Amino acid sequence: MNEIITLNNISYKYTDEENQYALDNISFSIEKGEWIAIIGPNGSGKSTLAKTINGLVEPESGEVKVGEFDLNEQNIWSIREMVGMVFQNPDNQFVGSTVQDDVAFGLENLGIPRDQMVERVHDALEKVNMLEFAEREPARLSGGQKQRVAIAGIVALQPEIMILDEATSMLDPKGREEVLRTVKEVKERENLSVISITHDIDEAAAANRIIVMRAGKLVKEGTPEEIFSYGEQLIEMGLDLPFP
Ligand code: ADP
Ligand code: MG
């Protein structure tokens, strides 16, 4: 066993009301190099779960371990360096006025020397097949291209884990397909562990394992074949995946 993420009995609630748990006693672990898809209806706790992994949400109880680090105040920045996140709305994640400036932003913050920075930006854009758009304004890209730039920004930081929180939800089918292909390629080349929260059947099918959440609980876990075989049962649970 070579676990990169371990969650142990995580619970969390946003409000003071009793029994309003956004996360209700969740435990699971992810092996290095594994791809986990998290599916479940809106409001089931998927995003909250993802946020516990890099400390954006601090669990009320339970333990989080990422790599060799227990998640606590002392280790939080080491953990954040290991975890890159891509969010749903491609327009909310740009800070640079060109694609290359945008990808460079995180590296600038880390104080990476200029020549290394240029090389890492070039390399990251090449890996997501966006090098030809390096000088383009992010606003002038398609949704799929924007998400590939967001992925390049993460790849440039050389993390070990990439979390995609509905990163393909706002894209058209072509955009979804190109982002999914990019995630597959980057995962292999960079030896990343991936967590993708998704409503897309192809994205869920690309994972090694699927976790199903409902009302803050982890209700099912299995290979895509196992999970898809539940078919109708999952739809009755409020899932909107078009199961085959
Ligand atoms: P999902 O990502 O599966 O749609 P979330 O993790 O966003 O679910 O939400 C889980 C639960 O927590 C929902 O009941 C949601 O309304 C609630 N919630 C999420 N974010 C907040 C917040 N910032 N403040 C209060 N409640 C929240
Ligand atoms: Mg969400």
Automatic annotation (TrEMBL):
Q: Which organism is it from?
A: Marinilactibacillus psychrotolerans
Q: Write down what this protein is called.
A: Energy-coupling factor ABC transporter ATP-binding protein
Any GO molecular function: ATP binding
- Keyword annotations for this protein? ATP-binding, Cell membrane, Membrane, Nucleotide-binding, Translocase, Transport
Q: Taking the first listed entry, what is the main subcellular location of this protein, grouped into a coarse class?
A: membrane
One Pfam annotation reads ABC_tran
The ABC transporter domain, residue ranges: 5-240
Q: Where in the cell is it found?
A: Cell membrane
